[in-house]
Amino acid sequence: MKIFKTKTEIRNYTRLRKLNGEICGFVPTMGYLHQGHLSLMDISITRSDFTVVSIFVNPMQFSPTEDLETYPVDIETDLNLLREKGVAAVFIPSVSEIYGESFQTQVSVTRISLPLCGASRGVSHFTGVSTVVLKLFNIINPDIAVFGKKDFQQLAVIKRMVKDLDLEVEIISGETVREKNGLAMSSRNSYLNANERKQAPVIQEALKEGKFFRLNTSTDSVSVEKHIINQIRSNAPDSRIDYIKCLDADTLEDTSPETDNILLAAAVFLGKTRLIDNIVFSVKSVEKS
């Protein structure tokens, strides 16, 4: 496995392999890898001739009040996992390598960035995400890139950017990987204490209850959201709800009678740890069954 720290090195590496006719797969990460990340690499390895993984904690997507300074890092463990997985190359740049001096350009994907985490964390969060992802695409020039469905809005933002800017990269989505108790895997799960970890699976359980409620009781999004909120508050007393939303999964806008694909999305604090999760389902497929 090759390890690169400069843009020139990784660009030359991928360019040479692509000139030989090989398909390049890419999985961007912020490190502290878990099985969810590794499942995305499995997809890339299956779909490409060689896979590049980046490890970069992107300061542009953190607000001043968020956990940039304490975000978990364990590069040696990450590298061992990547070697075992069969990744071809790892790009581990510094902040100065990515952004250089007097960096001034930002990429903003507008409407789809506004709700959910855009409203909660600020639209600058997704500006930071789309900017760094576009830079990584330009540096590595992958043929495919794999993102997880747990970060549903992030996936939607990247897809929109790729479509709008005519980028020649195929975006592939990977299913959310969960711990045995149903908690969606995340690097931030390491922040949870024993009591918080015990309550955390309630988020997914409440979303499932919300899906059942939406399909069998009420099509009103506000009622669905209130139902999910009540489930979480009743079963996770230490939780603090950031948002619970029922939206059109295709547009991330309010649902209408014509909406087929429904997104139930949650962001919930347990202690200082912010956890996100979601469920997406089709109304019409249920109606036909």
Report on the structure:
The protein has two domains: 173 residues, HUPs (Rossmann fold, 3-Layer(aba) Sandwich), CATH 3.40.50; 93 residues, Pantoate--beta-alanine Ligase, Chain: A,domain 2, CATH 3.30.1300. It has a six-stranded parallel beta sheet, sandwiched between helices. A three-stranded antiparallel beta sheet has the order 7-8-9. By secondary structure, it is an alpha/beta fold. It has eleven helices and nine strands. Helix 9 packs antiparallel against helix 10.
- Roughly how many Å is the radius of gyration? 19 Å
Please outline the major beta sheet: 6 strands, parallel
Shape from CA axes?
Answer: globular
CATH superfamily of the largest domain: HUPs
Overall structural domain count: 2
Query: What's the N-to-C terminus distance?
Result: 48 Å
The structure class reads alpha/beta
Order of helical and strand elements: EHEHEHEHHHEHEHHHEEEH
List the helices and strands and how they pair.
Blueprint: E1 2-4, H1 7-19, E2 24-29, H2 35-47, E3 50-55, H3 75-85, E4 89-91, H4 95-99, H5 117-121, H6 123-140, E5 144-148, H7 152-164, E6 170-174, H8 194-199, H9 202-216, H10 221-235, E7 239-248, E8 261-270, E9 273-282, H11 283-288
Parallel strand pairs: 1-4, 2-3, 2-5, 3-4, 5-6
Antiparallel strand pairs: 7-8, 8-9
Brief synopsis:
By secondary structure, the chain is an alpha/beta fold. The protein is built from 11 helices and 9 strands. The strands form 2 sheets. The protein has a 6-stranded parallel beta sheet with strand order 1-4-3-2-5-6, sandwiched between helices. A 3-stranded antiparallel beta sheet has the order 7-8-9.
